[in-house]
Amino acid sequence: MNSVNIMGRLARDPEVKQTEKTAICGFAVGFNDPYNKDKSNFIDCVAFGKTAETIGEYLKKGDPILITGRLQQDKWVAKDGSNRSKIVLNCERFSFVPKSKDTGGSAPSQNPSVTQEPIPF
After folding, report:
1. What is the DSSP letter of 111?
2. What is the mean pLDDT of the chain?
3. What residue numbers bound the domain in which 64 lies?
4. Residue 67 is assigned to a structural domain of this protein
5. Minimal CB count within 10 Å: which of 4, 42, 89, 117?
6. C-alpha to C-alpha distance for 103 and 30, rounded to whole angstroms
């Protein structure tokens, strides 16, 4: 089974590209190491279709998000001829997470997946 849940904040603004068949959204999520609060981790994410469009429309850098998806390894050959790879989270579902009071605002209220209780992280 390949299933991952990650809750964190967008590390950069989502980039949405439209292909002939579907929308593709690339973004990164940052989250704290649970054992070392001074260390942050980042993971590149990709979403497709309506999910990609929604993330691109409603979220921006710094916004909290909860993602459920699967990990995939992307491989390519760099310009210098070396083999490269990275792990990417393929977003299958996501939920808006209300912003904490210190950052102001809240998640869009028209989305039924908005959690009413603030989730600390």
Report:
1. -
2. 85
3. 4-96
4. yes
5. 117
6. 16
Task: Record the tokens describing residue 20, joined without a space.
Answer: 């002939």
pLDDT digits (tens, 9 = 90+) for 25-70: 999 999 988 888 888 899 999 999 999 999 999 999 999 999 999 9
- pLDDT tens for 71-117 read 999 999 999 999 999 999 999 999 999 887 654 444 444 444 443 34
What's the CATH code of the domain at 59?
A: 2.40.50.140
How many structural domains does the chain have?
1
Rg (CA), the chain: 15
DSSP class per residue in 57-96: HH--TT-EEEEEEEEEEEEEE-TTS-EEEEEEEEEEEEEE
**Cα separation, 51 vs 42, whole angstroms:** 20
